[in-house]
Amino acid sequence: xxxxxxxxxxxxxxxxxxxxxxxxxxxxxxxxxxxxxxxxxxxxxxxxxxxxxxxxxxxxxxxxxxxxxxxxxxxxxxxxxxxxx
Amino acid sequence: xxxxxxxxxxxxxxxxxxxxxxxxxxxxxxxxxxxxxxxxxxxxxxxxxxxxxxxxxxxxxxxxxxxxxxxxxxxxxxxxxxxxxxxxxxxxxxxxxxxxxxxxxxxxxxxxxxxxxxxxxxxxxxxxxxxxxxxxx
Lengths: 85, 137
Prior knowledge:
The structure holds two protein chains of two kinds.
Chain A: H1 2-15, H2 41-55, H3 62-68, H4 72-84
Helix pairs in contact in A: 1-2, 1-4
Chain B: H1 3-8, E1 20-25, E2 29-35, H2 55-66, E3 78-89, E4 98-109, E5 112-121, E6 124-136
Antiparallel strand pairs in B: 1-2, 2-4, 3-6, 4-5, 5-6
């Protein structure tokens, strides 16, 4: 799970071009959107594409996707669950 | 200008930039056309004596064509351009050109739709771009 978590963080940094940021600097439980990492809805779409291309997980249910985007912990759990499915 | 266009898009003269929808598969692909005439208002000043279609208007044409990917009419609703990615202008368009506007969706999430678009004229590619469209309400 920790490996996956660090892959998720790397994907976020690469996909959203958060230059100068390292995976260690992203707090597992801090909000990704608004406060915290400060991502916006355009970033959300980019992440949807990133998750599909990097982890082979399609986010079809928007409500579930928005819930998964709460923080790195929830996103990692979502990807792990859907990769296994 | 067909009424079908005006029923679907909220844009009006002088900023309705789609004349005809040639192919339309909702959510999959749209091909539309725009015939550039000498009477287009932007040709008066862009440029005087040397009319040339402004590149940004090609992006707007693709965005408007992208509106037809949506099943429901957009008239009376607001649709905005949220992001322009990877826009490349490869050729110029002039009065008399009939432009072919092709758009296909790449991804959508939470009211945002990302499309890949190409503007061409007689098999000459003039512009390619990815656009993010946001629909409100």
